[in-house]
Write a structure and sequence with these properties.
The structure is a single chain. With about 100 residues, the chain is an all-beta fold. The chain is built from no helices and eight strands. The protein has strands at about 10-15, 35-45, 45-50, 55, 65, 75, 80-85, 90-95. The strands form two sheets. It has a six-stranded antiparallel β-sheet, with no helix packed on it. A two-stranded antiparallel ribbon has the order 3-4. It is elongated, with a radius of gyration of 15 Å. It starts with 8 loop residues before the first strand and ends with a strand.
């Protein structure tokens, strides 16, 4: 199953946070936070403007992005958790 996002939506594969602290302690499942970083898997064609033109997305497949803790909707694709959200919900692109 493949998901092709519509309009200005993007599909993101979340990057799971570390399960071990810098001092070597393992975090229990209840202490883990929801991921806030991920890799763009697919982008929609862009937002349709009032004049009929499309505004190209600012992100592309492969970009690593930051998003809000409660942004987007979780979906399952081939037994993997992904997020789908509007491009405007992204907080930034991680470079380097």
């Amino acid at each position: 199953m493949a998901v092709k996002p519509l309009e200005d939506r993007v599909v993101i594969k979340p990057i799971e946070p570390e399960t071990k602290t810098s001092s070597g302690l393992y975090l229990p499942e209840s202490a883990k936070e929801r991921p806030m970083q991920g890799t763009i898997v697919a982008t929609g064609p862009g937002k349709l403007l009032d004049n009929g033109q499309r505004l190209e997305p600012n992100v592309k497949k492969g970009d690593t992005v930051l998003f809000g803790k409660y942004a987007g909707t979780e979906i399952e694709i081939k037994n993997d958790t992904h997020m789908i959200m509007r491009e405007s919900e992204l907080l930034g692109v991680i470079e380097g």
